[in-house]
């Protein structure tokens, strides 16, 4: 639990030239005690927060020079190992900056479970899963870290992407004494219903909840390199699922084609977003395309999938949205059975069906 001692002792393992993507294997792991509730005088329980760090490039403070900066990653809604392994910007710039890399895990995710195995039991055990508590965790950790390192004046840059980017921005706003700057990548800090964009006195539209999905859809279009048949076929597949859920035979077919762990059951309405038999299936498939868009890199990557597989060798292919859309090449939107098989293949649930050359690349 003494990160300062570890950094002053044997140096961390440097990133290997043979391993193009340094990550958790290069880091030290530390555990920091945090209050369960930073804002209560009556709640006295604590928990252990997991923190990864790499100090091989850090410029330690001495009489002749100031300490190098601390690049502090604000952990998102997943195991922090995902971000240690995928946040290349921090690794790429650490040496030139003389920076210490710190990756803090978000409470209730990964191995940072405030109440152990019962952390996510119900609403009462999840009451401390708030962004306010998470920000206080990070501010407290930074303060203690700087003191333990003997570097109280070290500059700190909060870094994050998506929700982690929101946390980085809010950490700078709410705890300006903790961080000197924030790099908030793809951080939708204004993405809340009813919140207007723009500065004071500027007329601007309300938050558009469909804007994100339009970006996802564009990734599945020829403009982004995907097959031209993809978008119309995917949209037709939603209708095919709704139609199939209207009968016992159709639900059985869906359960088989998508290799579901449990058979679909009859719901209030086939297309009912709350209780329909296919609602959860469509939500699952929607999340697949969401994930493909967020991980649509031009190289193979385990970003996002590592959280589920825990196996670093399981990779999404380069341009994974294009790879998924290729299964819809030559699809006929009126051929429901074929659409379902193609969707299952695109989602990785079964071998791809044979298809003919389509109009796109």
Explained architecture:
- It contains twelve helices and six strands.
- By secondary structure, it is an alpha/beta fold.
- A six-stranded mixed sheet has the order 1-2-4-3-5-6, sandwiched between helices.
- 37% of the residues are buried.
What are the secondary-structure elements, in order, as H or E?
Answer: HEEEHHEHEHEHHHHHHH
The total of beta strands comes to 6
Arithmetic mean of pLDDT: 86
Main sheet attributes: strand count, strand direction, barrel closure: 6 strands, mixed
Contiguous helical run count: 12
Please tag this protein with its features:
12 helices, 34% helix, elongated, 361 residues, single chain, 11% strand, alpha/beta, 6-stranded mixed sheet, disordered N terminus
Task: Annotate the secondary structure layout.
Elements lengths: L2 H6 L19 E8 L10 E9 L15 E5 L5 H7 L1 H10 L2 E5 L26 H18 L7 E6 L1 H12 L6 E5 L25 H9 L10 H15 L3 H10 L21 H16 L11 H4 L10 H6 L10 H11 L15
Parallel strand pairs: 3-4, 3-5, 5-6
Antiparallel strand pairs: 1-2, 2-4
